[in-house]
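Take a minute with the sequence and fold tokens given here and flag any structure token that looks odd. Thanks in advance.
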Amino acid sequence: MSVEFVFRLLGMVIFAVIGAQSRFLPYVQESEHSARIIIAVTLAGAAIGLLVAPYITVYPFRWLQVKLKEIPASKMLSGVIGLAIGLGVAALLYPPLANLPFPYGAVLPVAVSILFGYVGTAVMVMRQRDIVNVLGPKLVGGLPFEAFGGHKSNENGLLLDTSVIIDGRIADICQTGFIRNPMLVPRFVLNELQYIADSPDTLRRNRGRRGLEVLRQLQEDAPVPVQITDLDVEGVKSADDKLVLLGKQLDLPIVTNDFNLNNVAKLQGVAVLNINELANAIKTVILPGETISVKIIQEGKERDQGVAYLNDGTMIVVENGKYHQNETVNITVTKVLQTNAGRMIFAKLDR
């Protein structure tokens, strides 16, 4: 028996009782058909209760449950504290306001309680970081977990996605010292890595094992703490969805290479650090007219074209380069194109 059905039955009974109370109305008592009217109103009340009960009980509760899951835990805690402080101030003002003449003594205490409760909640939510900085710096960022590996940190953490761990470049970036934030790996991400490592497909199995090796390397060699956490999101099956909701609740950015996860997280207001975007941002800047030296390694798609690559993987299409395969030649850049797939450079041989 579903919860919705139970509430429909309760609503039917309650509204039927309300309808039955109509027998106490004067015009019903004076009517010759009072019994029929009472039965009709009772049945009408039962029908109305059966229909509207979920809309005033189950559905609002489910809507509130979804909204509460989307609110970061730090903001929710700040809102509760602010509400308590606001109501506390309103309680101090209650005795003098209640002694005012009617109707002020009846209306003002309620109005002041609502006003101070709202102001306290709004102030705490909007200025939570400033207030927490004053009261306790170790709580900055709203991190609900203890210091990583025994190290104290006032920095926000980073949530690592499965794709960025398998990719492995995050370990090299950590060694450069550019990442100064603690890194957090949820247990469901580790489980996904283990599932991939146990796959019967050789390629997936190798990728999963590489991810586990990269994670071990991060824990041993990274200059910042790396911790596995049991923080989870109930009612969600997909690891990507869990990661997005966890990032939203904890107010932490997600480090990923996944294009779809990148877009979904941004749509929900979660900050994303994309390693591929970082790689594109630090590629060597080459402008038309510059002369560089490259090694042509293969033929191009068009007639007489040769293809070379820069150290960062950028493809260079060289006009008439087909006849210089496996040779290092000087070329002059003629055009640079930025596409969704990356950057392409067109050049001609430097005669």
In short: Residues 136-155 have pLDDT under 50 and may be disordered. Strands lie at 158-160, 183-186, 226-229, 254-256, 272-274, 291-299, 306-309, 315-319, 327-339, 342-349. The CA atoms of residues 306 and 322 lie 4 Å apart.
